[in-house]
Specification:
InterPro entries: AMP-bd_C_sf (IPR045851), AMP-dep_Lig_C (IPR028154), AMP-dep_synth/lig_dom (IPR000873), ANL_N_sf (IPR042099). The protein is built from 13 helices and 21 strands. The chain is an alpha/beta fold. It folds into 2 domains: 356 residues, Rossmann fold; 106 residues, ANL, C-terminal domain (GMP Synthetase, Chain A, domain 3), CATH 3.30.300.30. It starts with 24 loop residues before the first helix and ends with a helix.
């Protein structure tokens, strides 16, 4: 396997010839079983390293009666207890600033990223220079698989702040040898400026969230610019489901006349493009030699069979500063076995990451995922660009309403239009939903992650408990 060592070391001068399909042909195409043998050996190395350098893991494994030497197979590895995000936050609160799972001296931390803390205590990511370069090399590999090359200009259109995704895309494109344009997002009026800068700089590749790409297309049209005339060849995404959701994907591809690639996993797990597409189709590969991914049942955290649905559990194989070992995602996906037809011999997630266990809501006994609603609504002719999902409770009965912006739908036809969407939703969800047409531009657009679900039942619960 090319440049496969522990601790990781990469030849920074290496870059494939532009016409070469694979960054590392051996690592990417070897028989999956042979790779699994190498991964098992690496897992044992990573666990031994964490045992010696990270008190967090030693305590956790001691309590579970686990020692790195007891892991003799990937099945044995499933007995290692999962790590939950709340454990990481609690450990950082007790061992500031980076937690007792920091496995290098604090003096070796050269980059700090983290979460925003909007849903609780922020989590700090302390990154050594070795890890920074490993992440750059890994992302360059996946971006190469997407067909991004040295002569591309890559627009990084997500906030250049604590958010890992922006910096991973930046350093990956830089390592690949492309021209990097870190325009960012989040400043009022910036999207209109983005349109004109894209034309001026000859941007050929876009990185951001699916929501922001759709917003950019709307703003371009308002500026009198056809998004397809901007010259993009490819768009790749992370941060939220969408790039593997057929309706969202087709709207983006149609608007820009470009190829669409999905990627991304968790903020705590970088290289986050270890779930990354390698062809212009829905779904992502699990680049197992970067981050070992197990799709597990959400109760016992054992791997499910290929073809089944579960929640990903991640183990970083190239991180030395804050290794993540069996980190539970609480995301939802379905995986398929490696196939030679895809070129790279990695497991495949045909729908990408399409939701979270804690984003799922239940209405009248049916489990509903927001991405399923997005797919139906965004595919509707006359869809105006945004929608909101509102769950409420009248008496003892839950009700589901979807407020949908419309555009170029005649007023006399609105009720029939809404009824058609409602019927499709009933078939897909197994539960009725009231579709409420609202005027175009009713809802704010986002330059980052879309938040479309409003659960009024939570408000009713809080009011009830307060009284």
């Amino acid at each position: 396997m090319e440049q496969w060592s522990w601790p990781p070391r990469y030849d920074e001068s290496y870059r494939p010839e532009p016409g070469q399909r694979f960054w590392f042909p051996r690592r990417e195409t070897m028989p999956a079983q042979e790779r699994d043998e190498a991964i098992l050996a690496r897992i044992r190395e990573v666990m031994a390293y964490a045992w010696e350098n990270a008190p967090f893991y030693r305590r956790k494994w001691d309590e579970a009666g686990i020692h790195p030497s007891s892991v003799k197979s990937l099945s044995d590895f499933e007995k290692v207890p999962v790590v939950r995000k709340e454990e990481l936050r609690a450990d950082q609160a007790a061992h500031e600033p980076f937690g007792s799972y920091l496995s290098v001296p604090v003096s070796e931390v050269k980059h700090v990223n983290g979460t925003s803390g909007t849903t609780g205590r922020p989590t700090a990511f302390g990154i050594s220079e070795r890890d920074w370069r490993s992440v750059a090399n890994a992302h360059a590999r996946v971006m190469w698989a997407m067909g991004i090359r040295q002569d591309d200009t890559v627009l990084v259109a997500s906030p250049l702040s604590l958010y890992w995704g922006s910096w991973g895309a930046y350093i990956g494109a830089e390592r690949l040898g492309a021209r990097v344009f870190p325009f960012g997002a989040g400043t009022p009026g910036q999207t209109a400026r983005t349109v004109h800068w894209m034309r001026q700089m000859g941007v050929t590749v876009f990185y951001g969230t699916p929501s922001y790409a759709l917003h950019l297309a709307e703003v371009a049209a308002d500026e009198g610019v056809d998004p397809a005339s901007l010259g993009l060849r490819k768009l790749f995404f992370s941060g939220e489901p969408g790039a593997s959701v057929p309706a969202i994907r087709s709207r983006i591809a149609g608007a820009f006349g470009a190829q669409v690639y999905d990627s991304g996993s968790m903020a705590e797990v970088s290289p986050w493009m270890h779930l990354g597409a390698a062809s212009d189709e829905p779904g992502v590969l699990c680049w197992q030699d970067l981050v070992y991914t197990e799709v597990c049942d959400p109760v016992h955290h054992h791997r499910v069979e290929y073809g089944a649905e579960g929640t990903p559990v991640y183990t970083t194989l190239e991180r030395t500063s804050q290794p993540m070992i069996r980190l539970l995602s609480n995301d939802l996906t379905r995986w398929e076995a490696p196939s030679a037809a895809r070129g790279r011999s990695y497991p495949f997630l045909p729908n990408g990451i399409y939701g979270r266990i804690d984003d799922m809501f239940t209405v009248r006994g049916e489990n509903v995922y927001p991405s399923a609603i997005d797919d139906v609504v965004m595919a509707a002719d006359g869809y105006g660009g945004e929608h909101r999902i509102v769950i409420s409770r009248e008496s003892t009965m839950d009700s589901l309403a979807v407020q949908v912006e419309y555009k170029d739908v005649p007023e006399p036809s609105l009720q029939a239009w809404a009824g058609g969407i409602a019927e499709k939703l009933r078939k897909v969800l197994g539960v009725g939903a009231k579709v409420v047409p609202v005027a175009h531009q009713t809802f704010d657009r986002t330059e980052f992650k879309a938040r479309r679900v409003v659960d009024d039942r939570d408000l009713l619960r809080r009011l009830g408990s307060a009284s």
